[in-house]
Amino acid sequence: MKNISSNQASDKLIFALDAKSYEDALSWIELLSGHVGMFKVGKELFTAVGPQIVQSIKERSQKVFLDLKFHDIPNTVAGAAESAVNIGVDMFNVHASGGSQMIKGAVLAASECADKLGRPKPIVLAVTVLTSLNNDDLKAIGFQQSTGELVLHLAGLAKEAGASGVVASPQDISILRKNLGNDFVIVTPGIRSANEAKKDDQKRTLSAYDAIKAGADYIVVGRPIRAAKDPLAACRQIVQEIAKGLAAR
Question: Which of 10, 159, 172, 194 maximizes the CB count within 10 A of its CB?
Answer without folding.
Answer: 172
